[in-house]
Amino acid sequence: MIRLEHVSKSYVKEGLPALNDVSLEINAGDFAFIVGDSGSGKSTLIKLLLKELEPTAGTITINGKKLNKIRRRQIPKFRRDIGVVFQDFRLLKDRNIYQNVAFAQQVIGESSRNIRKNVPKILSQVGLAAKYRAYPRQLSGGEQQRVAIARALINRPRILLADEPTGNLDVKNAWEIMELLDEINQNGTTVVVVTHNLEIVRAMNKRVIQMQKGVVRDDGADWDDGSPLYRSGEASSYGSDYFGEQPGFSGEEGAADDFFGGRPFYTQSGRQNGDGGGDED
Ligand SMILES: Nc1ncnc2c1ncn2[C@@H]1O[C@H](COP(=O)(O)OP(=O)(O)OP(=O)(O)O)[C@@H](O)[C@H]1O
Ligand SMILES: [Mg+2]
């Protein structure tokens, strides 16, 4: 689903490239952490996957599409299948939570009727039904990040990329967000998370791709950074209440029952696993 073949990216002519001959594959439905020192190329990798940057060499394939074959006017459609979340949330400050999430549907031309169904549903599924009228400045960091995740998922992307989603959060909120991302993954979305939060990485026991100076230094489930194995007892105590019943949403409770056939919003059922496009190589 995500494949890099000998991908390099140089920002400048001199010196080492930011990414240096990186090959890796992330399958549909996987959860992968990307870790590594500052400057090791993690954000560069994310930007390449979003086609915000072009590689200097190599090939990137996402959902069966070679990124260098995607024309400029096709980029918005391509990006619709990739949700993205950043450290600094990037919410629209002059719009409330509902409007922030609705906006992502408006720009793809979703009908207002569907938007009115979909937004409350997804907000309650990230635990924010009660706050839909609040503005970003009135929310905690953890809440703002949940809005950003709702916005990233509302158009049902097959892939969710997160670049340091917990970088601005305290330990408790960081755990809550990671557990939320894990739930999203368990319901079928491919999730790639760049993080410096090694404590959580160790505890969650996922694939860990470790970058160092532009190359993949290590890649595996048995990641060990050399420190004593740490397993947080907190790991299981967060997240479960996100997906329980939420308080009513301004009388709209139930209005969205048929959203994605009553399955969780991020369920990918009905889509084939693996690559979608017709121009598979
Ligand atoms: N726009 C740019 N122009 C020139 N050099 C850049 C640019 N963006 C990144 N770089 C360089 O590329 C390298 C990789 O940067 P990148 O942002 O991918 O690192 P990172 O792993 O995300 O680091 P951090 O953990 O600090 O976010 C760094 O040496 C950085 O200075
Ligand atoms: Mg970065």
Protein model, in words:
- By secondary structure, the chain is of the alpha/beta class.
- It has one domain (2-247): P-loop containing nucleotide triphosphate hydrolases (Rossmann fold), CATH 3.40.50.
- The protein is 26% helix and 20% strand.
- It is built from 7 helices and 10 strands.
- The protein has helices at residues 42-49, 75-79, 97-106, 112-125, 141-153, 171-186, 198-204; strands spanning 2-9, 19-26, 31-36, 57-62, 65-66, 82-86, 159-163, 190-194, 207-212, 215-220.
- It has a 6-stranded mixed sheet, with helices on both faces. A 4-stranded antiparallel sheet has the order 2-1-4-5, with helices on one face.
- A hairpin with a 2-residue loop joins strand 4 and strand 5.
- The longest helix is centred in the middle third of the chain and has 16 residues, at 171-186.
- The chain is globular and about 50 Å long.
- It binds adenosine-5'-triphosphate and magnesium ion (MG).
- Magnesium ion binds at residues 42-43, 163.
- Adenosine-5'-triphosphate (ATP) is lined by residues 11-12, 18, 36, 38-44.
